[in-house]
Amino acid sequence: MIQETLEDFRKRYKGTYLFLSFNGKEHLVRYDSDNEEEFCFYSPQYGDILVDEDTARNNIEIVFPPTGLYNLLGSVYEFNRLPARQWKRAPCKDNTQFKPIFEQLNCSVDQISLHHTIVEKLFFPVYPSSLEQAVKELKLATAISKKFAISYSPEDNSSILFWYKSQPIGYVYPDTKTISIKYKPLLQEVVDFLKKKEYTWSLNQSN
Q: Do 195 and 98 have their domain in common?
């Protein structure tokens, strides 16, 4: 197998986030620079990490986070990998996209730029243990999985919207532990979700 040239290595990975193995562990790092002998990777925990070319080439793992919903900046964003339009083979600002779910409702939202804290949340996401917990702790919006989220309605703070990715599809009624689906093409997705994850909840057929 022909090894890629150093120039190709730089084109593919410089400025990207990847995992570097050292001291017996994998660490999330950003490949910042090299002088052909020393390769500099940045980690908030260790600062600049200098390794030789052999380590840089052979001790890295390239992984993209799964697409879907994530809890970021106190709200919910849909993460997507952009179609390959350039060389980069690992996550970087040019090949990733964050879509705030509230953008669908023409609400003012914070835009995200890729940095280490955000990348960590993509690789190690945290979701509520249940829909009930998500409702109890709801402040603005919460992703409960990579497909589903809940939020208060921007028009009515007493109503809780139920989302499929960046599309609002119904309402959540905590008092009766029911969900009303208004967008019927996704009804089966919700049925499957309730059966697998939230069997104490049911569909509200009257709304």
A: yes
Calpha distance 28→116 (Å, rounded): 8
Find out whether 29 and 43 touch, Cβ atoms under 8 Å.
Answer: yes
Residue 130 to residue 121: CA distance in whole angstroms = 19
Can you give the residue range of the structural domain that contains 34? 6-61
Lowest-confidence range among 72-76, 103-107, 122-126? 103-107
Residue 1 within any structural domain of the chain: no
Query: 53 and 33 in one domain?
Result: yes
What pLDDT is attached to residue 58?
A: 93
> Distance (Å, rounded) from C-alpha 124 to C-alpha 56?
23
How far apart (Å, rounded) are the C-alpha atoms in residues 197 and 207? 22
Joined together, the tokens standing for residue 158 give 């007493």
Q: Give dist(CA 15, CA 91) in Å, integer.
A: 9
Distances (CA, A) of 77 to 61, 84, 92, 151: 25, 21, 17, 12
